[in-house]
Amino acid sequence: MVTFQLSSVSKIFDPLGWLAPFIIGAKILIQSIWTFQISWDDPVPEEINKKWTVFRDQLHHLKSIRIPRRVLLPNATKIELHAFCDASEKAYAAVIYLKSINDSSISVKLLTSKTRVAPLKTVSIPRLELCSALLLCHLVQAVRNSLKIQIDSTYAWTDSMIVLSWLQSESSRWKTFVANRVSEIQSILPSEVWNHIRGRENPADYASRGILPSELKSHSLWWAGPSWLCENNIDYSNQHLFCEDALIEERKKTTCAVGIVPLELSIIGKYSSFAKLLRIVAWCFRFLHNATSPSNKTKGFLTTLEIKCARNALVKIAQNQELASELNILRKGKPLNSKSKIISLSPFMDESGLIRVGGRLKNASISMDQKYPILLPKNHRLTEMIVRYFHEKYLHAGPTLLLSIIRKEYWITSARSIARHIIWKCVKCFHQKGQTANQFMADLPRSRVQPSRVFSRVGTDYAGPFL
């Protein structure tokens, strides 16, 4: 089971990455399991199980690996960090060694390492090498922040001439993927600290490909780095030639003048009235019919059938623009994806090629449009025009009445919010629902609000006798 494999790998406690060449094999194995799209409790395929058996049988060798806790020489006069990175088709890795020098000896010890499995999507080896270089920079940052000692020098090593060529140039020269990573790498480790190393001397190569614990125990290149690292006089000259293969990621620059003119290709966007648009399209169809069939010309007023054909043509435009994926699936007679936004409406395609809403009213004595309303997308301009048309036709009907009228012919997703929006934008409805202004009363006279003696101010009603 997948859970068993994951739990077995998780039991290996290796926060510093000393066992990375062995654990990376398990990571690659776990990644390959997920490509089979099996659940947690399903048995793994036989080919994976064989590889897992080899991995499991090697676990007991880990007990015999001994790692010295002391990595720094006493009274060290110089301390250096040497970081190596490499990548393979399956993974990429970075490893750091601490080199300490005192008056009598030189010591090089494995400090930490980090590995990452390569993405399932195919990525070129040079790009993976660049990802390993970025991983190296992040690891160097973490080591610098963790160690409480003074690091005199830091050196970065890679066996990829392409990566070194990228790092020697301005990041803006390269394509986006390379440019972003080169820029971040250069902000952490300048190009002067990067050096080239031969592939067979690169210890990070084993962390990117993987080796068995039985081999890891006595692997001097992994535990102590290249043999020349223990020498006192190392040639750190960073004079290597530019690799022509690096130009494959060069950003192509072209200067051109572009004039943008707004162009409305759809006839729907040229009119604001649905009734006018409907008749214009119907007349266009009349002209097309008469031009292609001179012997059978249609004359007189527009017929109901012509109006209906024009409506269907406009709805097809809207559905093609907003529901293209669903339309293609329904044309092929296949069921919609469960994640489709209209799956709950049981949509189907009618004889005219329109998407209609399904239902249980097949045997009802009502029209086709009432049984299976035409589906309209909420965000299309045609939908807004149709809602406004019915709102004005039925004397500026309110939201509830407007919805009941529209649903006799169309089904609009989020119809209530669209109806409210159209009514809110309607100028006549806004005027009708306007509130009258409230009268602001004047201040009371001074004689009414100032304290005074009794009968100091007296009023007489002279008109009383006449009433």
UniProtKB/TrEMBL annotation:
Location of the Integrase zinc-binding domain: 379-433
PANTHER family the record matches: GAG-LIKE PROTEIN, PHD-TYPE DOMAIN-CONTAINING PROTEIN
Protein name: Integrase zinc-binding domain-containing protein
Organism, as annotated: Araneus ventricosus
